[in-house]
Structure formats: structure tokens, C-alpha cells
Amino acid sequence: MAMRIPARGAGQESVLGALEGFRADDLKWRTGKAWAYVFDAGREAEEVCKKAYAAYLSENGLDPTAFPSLLRLENEIVGMMASHLNAGPEAVGNFTSGGTESIMLAVKSARDWAREKHPEIREPEMILPHTSHAAFQKAGHYLGVRGVPVAVDSETMRADPGAVRAAITPNTILLVASATSYAHGVIDPIGEIAALAAERGLLCHVDGCIGGFVLPYFRRLGAPIPDFDFAVRGVTSMSIDLHKYAFAAKGASVVLYRSKELRRHQIYACSTWTGYTIVNPTVQSTKSGGPLAGAWAVLHFIGDDGYLELCRRMLEATRELAAGIERIDGLRLAAQPDGNLLAFASDTVSVFHIADEMTERGWHVQPQLAFAESPATIHLSVNPSNTAWVREFLEDLRASVAAARLLPPSPLAAMAKTAVSSLAGVEISEQMIEQLLAMVGLRDRALPKRMAPIHELMNVIPPELRSKALIHFANGLFTPPR
Ligand SMILES: Cc1ncc(COP(=O)(O)O)c(C=O)c1O
What we know:
Elements: H1 12-22, H2 43-56, H3 68-84, E1 92-96, H4 99-117, E2 125-129, H5 134-143, E3 146-150, H6 161-167, E4 172-178, H7 190-200, E5 203-208, H8 215-220, E6 237-241, E7 253-257, H9 260-263, E8 268-270, E9 278-280, H10 290-326, E10 331-333, E11 341-346, H11 351-360, E12 366-368, E13 377-381, H12 390-405, H13 411-422, H14 430-439, H15 452-460, H16 463-477
Parallel strand pairs: 2-3, 2-4, 4-5, 5-6
Antiparallel strand pairs: 1-7, 6-7, 8-9, 10-11, 11-13, 12-13
Helix pairs in contact: 2-10, 3-10, 4-5, 10-12, 11-12, 11-15, 13-15, 14-16
């Protein structure tokens, strides 16, 4: 039976009760045992944020002249983030729905800036260290800016300024660096990359989506954080997410520019239709005031002193974790972390089996596939709610490594590797992908409890095939019940 709008309206209780029930199988992030997906500063901050969000849920950011409250909230939040990142008095920015949108807008501004300043460039390029977030490639895909991948230092997992320099061509418009990178939690050599951009007359975006908010606090706590923000000459734009370590509700990020002159290229206006006036600084047109009010509320509720304390806890916990991981036989840090994110690898045990073993023990950790300079790793994003669990986590990790050591590698991965190499040059069909996914038990839409066979398979097949398999999977996943 096809899904239909319910014939008759139901009571509030029954509707809300049903929604609550749907969550039974969701990730149990409130336990503090999940090391990804939800950024949790505790019940009180969550409550304030939710109340503010709900209060502004229906206001519409489509027209800031009709809702001056929203304009005020946005300008105040952007102002706070600009000062936090040492931007000068000329800096401007906008509130966006998330890191991906902030990055898309920065890439759009770069593209349209180049169209004006360098009309001779027909196929613009941006230089993307292998560790830069996938959102840049997505932005390039949407906007027609070619991402030029460059190797990173395999010891530090930081971008390599020499490789960036070598990749610059007459088509280059934008250099990209991260502070910090998601996968390994390290800060790229922003000073050198931004100086290179300034020397060549290029734009330079620093992705502070995950690190931008916390790094200034880590520095105040004595961590050796190099200059990474607008204090660095040559940095022209930055992204900083509030729905990560500012603990705002999802749908909250800021994109910042050194000046209006660059931000001008971000804004879209349309006067060639019959309806209301359209002038959109961001991708969305109609947008709820909820995320904006939630973010403003949580910034005021936690405050600078509160964030400093939360950052102290996260930094200490990350250091303890890093030291503890290095003491576990068979594990090594994939890079020395600069903040509160880290990744570890193993040369002797499958990290995918380790992740499954951790799941068995009630934890959620995030496996990352091997790519370019990075081996397969397990990633941890440390939250305030995780900090009470460091000792137990390390004990279970040690036990998980011992258990994983006894598990054989998936024979499917080896088979798939041979099969894929025999297919070199052959166009991969949807049917072949379906067979591949069926081999690892991915029929229908349910994921198996133990994910190692799937991860191991994905880990050995080429990245293009990974992406095709993922698209195929998602195309099936988002199917209405029939
Ligand atoms: C460094 C970095 N950039 C960009 C993003 C993308 O942000 P979002 O998932 O909010 O779109 C993330 C997300 O984790 C990130 O860590």
C-alpha cells in the first residue's frame, strides 16, 4: 500500500508519541559514548537552544526587512565570529545552514570574483589538499570549479605548501587549507599557504568548520596553536560552524570574508520574474529563524567562560586518549592531533573489526577508509559528554584490539580486489554494483550489525567505484514505504 496523508487528523499526544517511538534504534548519543555526529554540551545548553529555536521556528529569513529581529541575530552572530577569528573591522559574513553551505558560498564567491577579475580563466581551479573536506569537491561539482587534489605530508597529515605551489596553474583561483582538518584533526600550515595565495594574487579559504570555534580557546589554554585565522595575511575567507563545537542546533554555520568587496560575489538577486523581490545572500531563500535564534541563545548561555571550560575538558581528554591509544599494542596515531579530534590506525589489526568490537561494547566510533596518504583509521571527535569516559573507553579499546586480532580479514575484500583489477577499463554497470553490494550482505536497506566486511570491501576498491556504490546504496535507501 502506498503511503498516504492520514485520512483524519490525530491527537497531539498520539502524533508526538509516535515520533518518540521511531527513535528506538537511533544512535544513543546522550550516553556520552558516541564519538561523532552529535556535539553535546549537556542538557541545560540543549534546553536553552531548543526553546530559542522553537520560539523563532516560524519567522522567515527570506526577507530580513520584514523580520529585523533575524537580521539583528545574524549580524550579531557574524560579528562575534569575526572577532573570534581576528577579522578586522571591514569583515562581513553570513549565517548559513552548515559547513557545506558555507564552503559552497565561499567557492561561489571565488568563482564569481574570478569571472570579474580574470575573465580569461574559462575553467577555474581550486587546490585541495587530500585532507580538505569533501564539501569542497561537492562545491566544485555543483559550481563548475575543478578541484585539483594535492598530496599532504604523510607524517603530519598536514597540507604540503610545496605541493600546493607546484599545483598552481594560470587557471587557479583559490587555495584551500583546514584548521583543523576533520579526518586527523591537524592544522595545515596556514601561514605558508596564505602567503603563497597573496604572492600569486589568489584567494585563500581557511576551513574552520570544525576547528575554528575551539582553536582560540585551546590557545588561551596554552596549547601551541599557530596563527590560523584572519590574523594571517592572505586569508580571504573562512568557514566556522556553530552546530559543531559551539553546540548550537544543526543548521548553524558562518561564512566570513575579509571585506564586502569579496562577499559581494556571494549574493544572488533576481529581478526577472513576476513575483516578490529576490535577494538571497545564501543558498536557501525561505528559511526558519530557528537555527539563528538557537545559535544566538547558546552563545549567550554558555558564554566565553563556559566555552573555555568546555574546551579545557575536551583538550585534556584528547591528550589522555592520544597517550592511551599509543600505549595499546598494535595501534598508532595517524597524526599528532592539534585539537580535540584524532584518528588512529593499525598496521597489524583491521580497524574495521576494532570498530565493530567497540560497537559490541556500547561505543560508537567512526571508521575512515584509506585514501591517498592516509591509512584506514578510526576517528574520534571529542565532546564534553565524552570526557567522563576516557578510562573506560581505553580499556574497551584495548580489549577490542585483542578481540579483533583474532578475526580473519574478510575474504570478500580480497576477492573484490581481484575482480576489480580484472575489470580495469570496463564500464561499471548498475547491475555489477548491485552484485558487489549483495556479496557483502547489503540487500534491501538494512545494514548488518557488523560492518567490517562492507568497510573492508570499500577500503580495497578504487575511490570512483566506492562513490558509485554509495550512490547506488543511497538511491535505494531513500525509497518511500510501499
Ligand atoms: C573541516 C570540516 N569542513 C566542513 C565540514 C562540513 O560541515 P557540515 O557537515 O556541517 O556540512 C565538516 C564537517 O564535519 C568539517 O569537519
